[in-house]
Amino acid sequence: MYRVLYRKWRPQTFADVVGQEHITSTLSNEIETGKVSHAYLFTGSRGTGKTTCAKILSKAVNCLHPVNGNPCNECEICRGIDDGSILDVIEIDAASNNGVDNIRDLREEANYTPVHTKYRVYIIDEVHMLSIGAFNALLKTLEEPPEHVKFILATTEIHKLPATILSRCQRFDFHRITPESIKERLKYVAEQESIVLEDDAALLIARIADGAMRDALSILDRCSGIENHITSETVSNAAGLAGKSYLFELVDNINENNPSEVLSLIGKLHNDSCDMERLCSELINHYRNLMIIKTVKNPKNLIICTDNDFKNYNKQAEKTTLYKILYCISELENTLSIIKNSQNKRTDMEMGAVKLSVPNISSDNSALISRIEALEKVIKSGTFSVVKREEKPVEKETEKSEEKAIEKPKINQRKNETQNINPDEDVLFLQWGDVMENINVTDKPLIGILGTSSAYIRGDFLLIKCDNPVFSQFIRQNNHASAIKKAVFDVTGKKYRLGIYKSDDSKKSSSDPLAELINKINN
C-alpha cells in the first residue's frame, strides 16, 4: 500500500527534525542526562514538528539502547511503539475527546504501571480543545503525576490554554521552518524517491508551504503525481497559482475607475462558479503583494508567485500609489466581513468593487484623499486642459472698449478692497483661520475658548465674534490679548485694536443697562 510522503519521511530521531534545533538539542540533552520533565507543552503552527517530536520523545524515554539522547529505533520497544503493538504510549485527540469523562478515564488509567515500557506516555494533541471542566480534572494529575507517567501536550493555539496548565508544563515554542531548510529537505526526499526536482520548483514549494514541512511534502507528493520531472510550472499548476490573470485585470480596471468592466468581470467569475468570499480574499492577498513590492527592498522572498506573475506585480505596483493600495485593502477587509454574514454575496462583492473603482461616491477621508491623489497625478502629468468660458460675441469695437473700461476699475477695486474699508461698516476678516493657527501654537488655552469664532474689521478695530461667555474675561487679560494681537500682526502685517463683536440684533435685544455699559466699553 502506498504511503504518502509526509508519513513515509516523518523523522525518527531528533537529528532528522528540520528547523527546530533549539528544541531538539534541549530534549536530547535532557534524555541523555536523565533530567526528563513530567509534563511538556509543544506549541507552534501546523506542520512544524510538534507531534513528531512528541513521538520521538516518547520512544527516547523508553528506549533500551538510546544513542546520544535519541531512540535507537531498533530495539523491541522502539519497534513496538512504531507499529502500535505496545500500548503504553497513548495518543489522544483532544478535539474528539474533550469532555470531563475522557480526562477522568485517563486519570484512572494513569495509576496503573506500564506493561512493557518504563514510562506510560500520554500525548494529547490539540489540547486547547479541552473543555474547562476537562482542564480542571487534569490539573492535579498534571502537577503531581505518578512516577511512571509522562505528559506531552501539543497545541496550535497556546492563548486558549489556562494559566494553571501553562505553569505546570515545560514549554517549547516551534518556529516556522525557513524556506531554505524546507528546500534542502525536499531535495533530499526527491532524490530518495527518484524524483527530478528543480531548484526553482523546490523553493516555490517551500514558499507556498509557509513554514510547514508537512504541507511542503504534501505538495511534492501532488506534483509527483502529475509528472516525475517537477518544474516551477508544475508546482504552480498543482498548487493553484496559475490562472490568476483575472486578479490583475480587476485591479487594472479599479485603478482606471472603470466600474462597468469591474462588474462584468465579477459577473463572469460568478457564472464560472467562483466563490465571492474566496474572490475577495484573493483580491486582498493581491493588494498585499503590491504593498510588499512598494515597501520592501527585496520583496520576492515575501511573495508566493511565479516569476512571470512577479513581473506583472512590479508593473502594476508602478501604476498604483501606496495609499490607494492600503485604502483598497481596508475596504476589501470590510467587504469580506460583510460577505461572510450575507445572504447575497455577489451583491456585496459588487458593492465593494464599485466603491474601489468610483472613489468619489464615498465621503469618508480615505476616499477624499484618494481623489486628491488622482488630481495631483493628473496635474503632474500635465494632461489636463483648462476650459475657458465662452464670451458673447460683440458686434462693435466701442462696446469692447466700454466693457474693458468697466472691468478695469472692478479689478483694481478687488485688489485694494482691504485698503478701502469703510470705517463705519463691519467687514468679515477672511484671514481669521490663519490667525487661529498661530494662536494654537502660542496660547493653547485661548484656542479652546475661541472654538468656532469669527472676526470682523471696523476701521482700526478687529472685532472678535465668540459665543463662549468666558471669552470676554479672557480677552481682558494682557497675555491673551497680546497673543491675539501678535498673531494678527504676523498674518496681516498690521496692528489692530481688539474688541468684541456685537451684532445689531443682540444690541436691540439687550435691555440690561450693565450689558449696554460693557458693550460701550468694548466698542
What this model shows, in words?
It is a single chain. The chain is an alpha/beta fold and 523 residues long. 55% of the residues lie in helices and 9% in strands. It is built from 25 helices and eleven strands. The protein has helices at residues 5-8, 21-33, 50-60, 76-83, 100-110, 132-143, 163-166, 179-192, 199-209, 213-226, 232-239, 245-255, 259-271, 276-295, 307-318, 322-340, 345-357, 365-381, 397-415, 432-442, 444-450, 471-475, 478-492, 504-509, 513-522; strands at residues 39-44, 89-93, 120-125, 149-155, 170-174, 196-197, 229-230, 427-428, 454-458, 461-465, 497-500. Strand 9 (454-458) and strand 10 (461-465) form a beta hairpin. Helix 14 runs antiparallel to helix 16 (322-340). The longest helix has 20 residues, at 276-295.
Measured as a percent range, the helix fraction is 55-70%
The number of strands is: 11
Rg of Cα set: 38 Å
Q: How many DSSP helices?
A: 25
The span between the termini is 103 Å
Overall mean pLDDT: 82
Envelope shape: elongated
Main pleated-sheet profile? 5 strands, parallel
